[in-house]
TrEMBL record:
PANTHER family linked to this entry: TRYPTOPHAN--TRNA LIGASE, MITOCHONDRIAL
Pfam families: tRNA-synt_1b
Protein EC: 6.1.1.2
Lineage: Bacteria, Bacillati, Actinomycetota, Actinomycetes, Streptosporangiales
Protein name in UniProt: Tryptophan--tRNA ligase
Amino acid sequence: MTTILDTTPDDDELGLPAARRRSAALERQIHERPGRFRALTGDRPTGRLHLGHYFGTLHNRVRLQNLGVDMMVLIADYQVLTDRDVADRLAEHVEDLTLDYLAVGIDPDRATVFTHSAVPALNQLLLPFLSLVSVSELGRNPTVKDEIAHSRQSAVSGLMFTYPVHQAADILFCKAGLVPVGQDQLPHLEVARTVARRFNSRYGPVFPEPEALLSAAPLLLGTDGGKMSKSRGNAITLAATADETARMIRGAKTDADRDITYDPAARPEVSSLVLLAALCLNRDPHEVAGEIGGRGAAGLKGLVTDAVNDRFAPIRARRAELAQDRAHIRRVLRDGNEWANAIADDTLKEVREAMKAFY
Ligand code: TRP
């Protein structure tokens, strides 16, 4: 296949170059007037978050919050119901996720942490929104296709199929202008933009079109060299102890070349470990690799273990302390849900007025 552009066809299909340029422009505007922006992002409560989540998105959420952006952090608890194993332990997962958020520095005085199942008006938006998209559009969504392919279910539920529309409700209920996400979420965001546009043109202007804020998420691999993932058991969690961390890194896949270099294309496993150390130390990965030099995989692993354990010691200590205070966790969620409900009720009222469905 020939490509004329210096991007891969996949990148282009997703509109990635344009999305990256737009994100850079948004970053400049955020720095000028952070208070003008509301951002919404979130996670499905499927277990404890790991270092990939931290450097990929959590760190960025805390940065935006600290700049003064109004942060809404969603725990997407309805969207895990299709996974039986996860659904059976929902409350535990929600609590774990909340603890992870608070431990990394999401501050409930400045950010709203909420669960979408507790916000009825948010979910009611799903009905008018579903009327605005076709079944074939949903069937084409690449992220849904991917998730269906990877799910352990034999049949695709209606909930899974309509996930992007539900996600549109998650974003639009609070009129979030910014959605800090990884590039895998771009197709979902496109659905939210389409829903906003179609709603506005049919019923009048209610929703701003949300924009993706792509962060330069570093690609960290799991300790087996595959994609880092909770379900593959190859991820170091935020909550892991120093010993567990050491054990996982000791078992991590490397290669036979004693000289440590940073070369993600040729040496993905070694380079991912170098990158992890560099991220923890706020340093350049080439420099870190150069310093390890001929000390081999053992030298590399020792350095990565210390770097991770030093960087995450305060976060882990805070997490352990917060875990003792269940009442606090419940209060954070109750307050977050209360505020999310107030916002959602206002939006639903506006929506019903726009639809002339107010009797
Ligand atoms: N789909 C996201 C994920 O799998 C989670 C999510 C649900 C989300 N609703 C959202 C992310 C709204 C951003 C905005 O990680």
